[in-house]
Sequence to fold (365 residues):
Amino acid sequence: MGFEDLNAISMQYMDVLKELGNIGAGNATTALAQMLQCKVDMKVPQVKLLAFNEVGATMGGEEQIMVGIYLMVEGDITGSIMFLQRLESAKHLVSMLMGTEETGGTDFSDMELSALKEIGNIITASYLNSLSTITQLRIMPSIPDICIDMASAILSVPAIEFGAIGDNILLIQTQFTDDIELDGYFVLIPDLESYEKIMSSLGM
Amino acid sequence: MNKIIKVGMAELDICKSPDGISTLGLGSCVGVVLRDPGTKIGGMVHVMLPDSTKIRNSENIAKFADTGIHALIQKMIDAGANRNALVAKIAGGAQMFNFQNKLAVIRVGDRNIEACKEVLHAEKIPILAEDTGENYGRTVVFFPEDGKFIIRAVGKEEIFI
Fold:
């Protein structure tokens, strides 16, 4: 299957993403529970294909402050992935991980920032591992970079990458619950060539 | 009673005083506003990518610096603005992540700013002010009444240019 336009994306590909979301979130749940030493449950991930102007609203408003963790992907496929979560859930996660009091405001200490990057690393790696396992492709993430800002501003980065091929953006929404409340969004952006590789490795 | 018209990512629109026009959370995109001081007609385009000719799928004209600014100029002329009196202000084009990476797409903020300036220069529209680059998102509101361009960012004082 050639991939030239996200608007013409196949239902098959949406199903692949949904399955990927399921397995990835499952792996991430286990990893989070181990790291945080608490019970973590997950809801069935939602895969959404959204127009650019709908993306901000989906996350609670364009100006909702989010923490975005962004990684480059190399290996058999190339592209980038991003994991987004609300500021409040990031604050909550960090305090659980480090055993400290939750703080207000938008600031994080250097220690907290690196803890957040580590969480982002673990969650994105869980997804990439499941992608790698089902496609048998070699996938290597770069070190993560972090940004705390308005949802629309952070999302402009993946949106611009999608912008080169269409007017939509693909999001996998994952909710972790139980002892933690974490509403996370996951954006996977393989380049054109990599889309074809992913699909053909799955025999589509 | 003035209202604020909202422009989303890769969209454009115009307004007339006393109304204002706004876009929320500009990141690496660039918000270009135009104003005719005589008729007090204003407009904004939310540019995502620098060049429509480099992209295969380019139907959405508001997405690109070249086609977006041209379409905005035309829309303002159609509404009665004086083409030769137009002035511009620009904001946005931030680099949200610090990747020291080879991928040109990471520097897309800078490329968007440059492209918008080039198009405005070619159209002989003076750029009166700008608040561009850096590494943070911006919410912007523009009032064609006096040309005031308000810029808000997380954890920063509101400014206007």
